[in-house]
UniProtKB/TrEMBL annotation, chain A:
This is TRAP C4-dicarboxylate transport system permease DctM subunit domain-containing protein. Keywords: Cell inner membrane, Cell membrane, Membrane, Transmembrane, Transmembrane helix. Residues 9-439 form the TRAP C4-dicarboxylate transport system permease DctM subunit domain. Its main location: membrane. GO terms for molecular function: transmembrane transporter activity. NCBIfam families: dctM (TIGR00786). It comes from Geosporobacter ferrireducens.
From TrEMBL, chain C:
This is Tripartite ATP-independent periplasmic transporters DctQ component domain-containing protein. InterPro entries: DctQ, TRAP_DctQ. Residues 26-158 form the Tripartite ATP-independent periplasmic transporters DctQ component domain. Belongs to the TRAP transporter small permease family. The chain crosses the membrane at residues 21-40, 52-68, 89-109, 129-151. It is found in: Cell inner membrane. It comes from the Bacteria. The lineage of its organism: Bacteria, Bacillati, Bacillota, Clostridia, Peptostreptococcales. Signal peptide: none annotated. Keywords: Cell inner membrane, Cell membrane, Membrane, Transmembrane, Transmembrane helix, Transport. It is a multi-pass membrane protein.
Length: 453, 328, 164
């Protein structure tokens, strides 16, 4: 009874707009007041929730991500993707998933990927005649690639509530991440023409306003192409510098020079070197502001850990993980039906809950059920990450859509039509793939980390 | 907490519902090489049975209520009723005394000195735990820690020179390892991958844990240096919960605890034998030290004595050494 | 009042700067550890807990400045559903008050916890710092978050009151 009351209270409070961490705190307090249970572990639980070496990777990869943007590395990635795809059909649209992948190799976060791409690519592609609604939806949908391509911040959160290894999880999402990108590229190829009209481009509009002749237009275009050609070498050189970073990070982790957490610090140093010394795009003062930005936003991101953990403990002490197992296995004893139910639960939960909550609260609830039907911690992790990704683009609670909406000024409802193909033919199929084919997740970890997973 | 049953006024009918927390694995999902988890399960079953339902203990494995430091803290603050595991030395430096390197020569010495109700070091430990607001009920034979690595056989202290060894935050562990190898702190969850990628080359670990953690899949070398006996099997009850228990129930809990701890020792010894054969089957080379080689390790440990004595507290150190001598 | 405003601005700046420096130190300590392992082949005992502590302190302190701007993660879904600005504002005021109460209770727990930690006198495993100093940040954070939510609530109530 008290449990149901507190769970309902949390959901209602989240829905009506109370700050999420304090919704969980409220729910826990409601439970305590209704049952008279002890409050003595509230604060110790929240204190120890953050006391972990692997959690350090979160601020480190966040700093590294901010440095990516300021150092000019992000710009280089966009230039490179444009250079590669310029001549293909729907090419400029295809740069979105490609840059997300590139950026993902440097950043650990889907949110950072969406924010960076949204602010750097959306205005430029709008100028070229792409529909804002499509851009907002597509960039949001590509967010998950930012962590499916390692490093992966969600993997770090996941290790807080499971015993899986970060290094193995980093490898596990690569294949599904690449498949996901390919599906996006295909979907873009077949739907882009609804959303792209070169006549809406800024140059075309200027051309019409100035009653420019067709010839003049042609010369203008050829000038742009020439400029690009002259830049090619610089772009490739710079891209080389940019891509040295994932080589150092992943190479360092898998050749045993440093751990996944330490790799975050190495990424920061590399970002600093590139930004300050090589590209000379930022001063040390600007670099320090990246550290300030991350440090002062930790309170909003990591405060989720203690506040949700207090509530998860209450769930655990009331045997909820066991109940979940009983409930799911009660519906069917067929392994595949159970897996489908887990998927469904995750998709539904993802509609209403934020990524951190999904990982921190649902992992302990689902681990026993997963164990019964033979889903390992690595595979469950990948399932969770894909589900979290789906959750970021399913309203009402859709972080990525919020972000691109804010940047582009497009209403969330207007993004639904262009979003639907990406959701139905890429994101959800990938979720089904990783749930039914464990090898997609476990192949790379077992190959590279020779030894059974 | 201890919930009173409103139906009865006499103590016979009061039931106590207790939470018991540990970092050890749930034997339901990890039945093999899990003497700690199994003995905890045994204890819970015995108490629930022998008290005829007057005490109901609910077990929480896998650090689900927190890691050791957090669990022991909850215990001392009266938030957790029963803790199974090792209280850390940073809480009370005297607890470090249990893990003085080469304090005990074998399990027999352990039983005589600490793992039996009248053992001198057990009595002493009970005093320390009591001063931490808790009651030490029983101590198990626990485990000795050897050395596992993926690079080359290790026979002497000098053989560690070129190895990156995983350690964890603990004054004694730090003292012993930091000067003889390249010691690196690493969370337990990263050890397997750390060994695979060679971020670390090895770690001090019990033979049975090498099997249960599947490190043997990575091949290679184990040496029974048994440098440390780790007091991992302690059943401890929070003071206020212990004190409110009627004498007959206290007796039942004590009995069950010692029976469970004895079971831990039996399981561990049984596991140890099969661990060696499992490890060999999996291609791990097991190096058993000769008496002379072992003496070399002991000599190294003894050279640290003054620093260890300082870390634990001279009085405690002397009292412990005395107690162990007395038990022989 | 002026002094309070100045203090508020000062605290805001101090926390941001502290968090920035903490992040720099945290990165540096980890880099030094890697270098120590490979270049100097030594282990630096005890310091590996410092980055974790720096992170924890940053989390608790920066949570205050997030609370100051009522910026903790929330969903703005209700804005789309309730079009009446006044009702929306009243709802937000109620939520702020509720948050103040909830945080206030938590702050009380944090104080109890801190006091009992001081009595227990534990130290950290690596550097042997008294654990209560770390626990104090939970209290400081909870206390000031409560304070800022209280101030924001009072402001909101005043505004609602003036509509009459
Ligand atoms: Na990534
Ligand atoms: Na969603």
């Amino acid at each position: 009874m008290a449990l149901i009351a507190s769970i309902s209270a949390i959901l209602i409070l989240i829905f009506i707009g109370m700050s999420v961490p304090f919704c969980f705190l409220s729910g826990s307090l409601i439970y305590i007041f209704m049952t008279g249970a002890s409050t003595g572990t509230f604060v110790s639980t929240s204190y120890y929730a953050l006391d972990s070496f692997s959690t350090l990777a979160i601020p480190l990869f966040m700093i590294a991500g901010t440095l990516m943007e300021k150092s000019g590395i992000a710009r280089t990635l966009i230039d490179l993707a444009e250079m590669i795809l310029k001549k293909t059909k729907g090419g400029m649209g295809a740069t979105i998933p490609l840059v997300s992948c590139f950026f993902g190799a440097l950043s650990g976060s889907g949110t950072a990927t969406v924010t960076t791409l949204g602010s750097m690519m959306a205005p430029r592609l709008t100028e070229l005649g792409w529909d804002k609604r499509y851009l907002a939806a597509f960039i949001a949908a590509c967010g998950p690639l930012g962590y499916m391509i390692p490093p992966n911040m969600n993997a770090i959160i996941y290790t807080r509530v499971s015993s899986a290894s970060v290094a193995a999880l980093f490898l596990a999402t690569i294949i599904p991440g690449i498949l996901w990108t390919i599906l996006y590229l295909i979907i873009n190829r077949y739907t882009y023409h609804h959303w792209y009209n070169p006549e809406n481009s800024v140059t075309a509009k200027i051309g019409m306003a100035g009653e420019q002749t067709a010839e003049n237009g042609a010369t203008a275009k050829s000038i742009i192409v020439e400029e690009q050609a002259a830049d090619k070498l610089t772009i490739i050189k710079r891209a080389g510098v940019a891509f040295l970073m994932p080589v150092i990070i992943m190479g360092g982790i898998y050749s045993g020079i440093f751990t996944a957490t330490e790799a975050g610090a190495v990424g920061c140093v590399y970002g600093l070197i590139v930004g300050v010394l090589i590209f000379k795009k930022m001063s040390l003062k600007e670099a320090f502001s990246s550290f300030i930005k991350t440090g002062s936003s930790l309170g909003s991101i990591l405060i989720m850990f203690p506040m949700t953990l207090i509530f998860t403990r209450i769930l655990v002490l009331n045997g909820v993980p066991g109940m979940v197992t009983q409930f799911i296995t009660g519906i069917s004893s067929n392994k595949y039906v159970i897996i489908l139910i887990i998927d469904l639960v995750l998709i539904l939960a993802g509609c209403f809950l934020d990524a951190g909550v999904l990982l921190l609260v649902f992992t302990p609830l689902l681990l026993p059920t997963a164990a019964i039907i033979g889903i390992g911690e690595i595979q469950l992790g990948v399932m969770m990450f894909v589900a979290v990704g789906v959750g970021t683009i399913t309203p009402p609670m859709a972080m990525n859509l919020f972000i691109t909406g804010k940047i582009t000024g497009v209403e969330m409802m207007d993004m639904m039509k262009p979003l639907l193909p990406f959701l139905l033919f890429a994101a959800i199929p990938i979720l089904i793939l990783v749930t039914f084919v464990p090898a997609v997740s476990t192949f790379l970890p077992s190959l590279i980390l020779s030894g059974g997973m | 907490g201890g919930g009173g049953n409103p139906a009865g006024s006499n103590s016979e009918e009061v039931t106590y519902t207790w939470k018991m927390g540990t970092i050890y694995n749930d034997p339901a999902s990890r039945p093999d090489y899990n003497s700690f988890g199994l003995s905890m399960k045994k204890f819970v079953e015995l108490v629930n049975e022998k008290s005829e339902g007057r005490i109901v203990i609910e077990p929480y494995y896998n650090s689900i209520l927190g890691a050791s430091q957090e669990l022991f803290e909850q215990l001392r603050r009266g938030e957790l009723e029963v803790f199974y595991g090792q209280p850390m030395a940073n809480v009370d430096s005297r607890f470090g005394a249990w893990s003085i390197p080469y304090l005990f020569s074998d399990y027999d010495a352990v039983t005589k000195a600490i793992a039996s109700p009248d053992a001198p070091l057990f009595k002493l430990s009970q005093e320390w735990v009591r001063e931490n607001n808790a009651e030490l009920i029983a101590v198990g034979p626990s485990v000795f820690r050897g050395f596992f690595n993926v690079k080359h056989p290790v026979a002497t202290v000098q053989d560690l020179r070129d190895l990156k060894v995983r350690i964890y935050e603990d004054p004694i562990v730090n003292l012993f390892w930091k000067d003889i190898c390249n010691a690196t702190s690493m969370p337990y969850s990263e050890v397997y991958t750390g060994l695979q990628t060679k971020t670390i080359d090895g770690l001090e670990f019990a033979d049975t844990s090498v099997v249960s953690s599947k490190y043997y899949e990575l091949g290679n070398y184990f040496t029974d240096i048994n440098w440390q006996w780790t007091s991992g099997g302690n059943i401890i009850i929070g003071k206020k919960f212990w004190d409110q228990l009627p004498e007959d129930l206290k007796e039942i809990v004590r009995e069950c605890a010692w029976e469970a701890m004895e079971y831990q020792g039996i399981e561990e010894k049984k596991n140890k034998e099969s661990a060696y054969s499992t490890l060999r089957e999996c291609g791990v080379e097991i190096y058993e030290l000769s008496d002379e080689e072992r003496q070399g390790w002991i000599d190294y440990a003894r050279s640290l004595d003054s620093r260890i004595r300082e870390a634990i507290g001279p009085e405690t150190y002397d009292a412990v050494v005395e107690a162990v001598k007395l038990a022989k | 009042m002026e002094i309070l405003k100045k203090l508020d601005a000062l605290a805001f700046k101090a926390i941001r700067t502290f968090a920035g420096i903490a992040m720099v130190l945290l990165t540096a300590v980890i880099i030094i550890q890697i270098l120590a392992r490979y270049v100097f082949k030594v282990s630096i005992g005890g310091i590996e807990e410092t980055p974790i502590f720096l992170m924890m302190i940053s989390v608790w302190l920066s949570a205050i400045i997030v609370a100051r701007e009522d910026g903790h993660v929330k969903i703005d879904l209700i804005d789309l559903m309730i079009k009446n600005k006044k009702i929306l504002y009243i709802l937000k005021t109620v939520l702020r008050c509720l948050t103040t109460v909830v945080l206030g209770i938590y702050a009380k727990f944090a104080l109890d916890y801190l006091i009992s930690s001081m009595r227990l006198g534990d130290t950290t495993p690596g550097l042997g710092i008294p654990v209560w100093t770390m626990h104090s940040f939970v209290f400081i954070s909870a206390f000031f978050m409560t304070l800022y939510y209280l101030i924001n609530s009072i402001k909101a109530i005043k505004e609602v009151w003036e509509w009459r």
